[in-house]
Amino acid sequence: MTTTGTLVLLVLQQCHAVTITRTQIPLSTGVSMEWLRCGERKSVSPPPVLFVHGTFHGAWCWEQFWMERFAAAGIETHAVSLRGTSGSPVDQKSVKITEHVDDLKAFVAATLPDQPPVLVGHSFGGASVLKYLEAEGAASAAVMLCAVPPSGNGPMVGRFLRRSLKQAWLITKGFAMKSAATDAQVCRDLFFDEGTTLDEVAAYLPKLEADAQVGLDVGHFTRNLPSKEADWDGVAFWVESPRVPALVLGAERDGVVDREGVEETARFLGLQGEAEFFDLPHDVMLCKGWEAPCDRIIEWTKSL
């Protein structure tokens, strides 16, 4: 295993038939990024997968279930903790989405120079992936998973407000007041459902709280929304130059990203009417029933 800079191996975790390695990799952007890796590439195999987490999460959210399952299917996987999380701490009060993009580009250049990854972006990680593609970051394909749409959170919160004042307040309380990282009930209402017990949710809270300390620069994101780089039909200008294969997945019982937001992302990527939905809550990688979206992405990746 070779990369730019010196790698400090922190943990080797045996995960049944596969091993997940946890490493800190110094990037050219000045960030020491937490990097999880699972599985090995064969001479003929699908492209590697790079998981990009969302708000209040880190690389750990892919570790419990998905990385092992991908590796068992013969797909090499990588997961990173973005700048400002507990795994990749920085001395900043907030982080710009363009910094996430620069870090992702530096990570891919350092670790996957020979075969660009399939980027899987969950929640706000999806917005980061869209900006990465806009910036011509190297990618074999992209999967948007309950992703914040190109127009950002504003229009979605407005739709929730018209449907349910209670849900709109829950979203505001959960994210703006960070209650989703400290209150098990709020966390379950936003990220999970009753299939996950409050005790199970509470076990995640220390990780969520640790990864919620440094927030996104919302003003900067609003000025740089992916939707600003779209035509009148809502399709990204860069989709056809060249088009990156894409898969857009949503969750029917998502309390954070609604159906309209998922469908907007599909249009943005030139996939008219091609979004797929699972009967799950927002955190599809951790909730009961996680196998269905995981296996769908595995199937799609192996078809590339």
What does this structure look like?
- There is one protein chain.
- This protein is of the alpha/beta class and 304 residues long.
- It has a single domain, classed as Rossmann fold (3-Layer(aba) Sandwich).
- The chain is built from 11 helices and 11 strands.
- The strands form 2 sheets. Strands 1-2-3-5-4-7-8-10-11 form a 9-stranded mixed β-sheet, sandwiched between helices. It has a two-stranded parallel sheet with strand order 6-9.
- Strand 7, helix 4 and strand 8 (141-145) form a beta-alpha-beta unit.
- Helix 7 (184-191) crosses helix 8.
- It is globular.
Helix and strand arrangement:
Blueprint lengths: L7 E8 L2 E9 L5 E7 L10 E4 L7 H4 L2 H7 L4 E4 L13 E2 L1 H15 L6 E5 L1 H11 L6 E5 L8 H10 L1 H11 L8 H8 L6 H13 L4 E2 L1 H6 L22 E6 L7 H10 L7 E3 L12 H12 L2
Parallel strand pairs: 4-5, 4-7, 6-9, 7-8, 8-10, 10-11
Antiparallel strand pairs: 1-2, 2-3, 3-5
Structural class: alpha/beta
The proportion of residues in beta strands is 15-25%
Low confidence ranges: 1-16
CATH topology: Rossmann fold
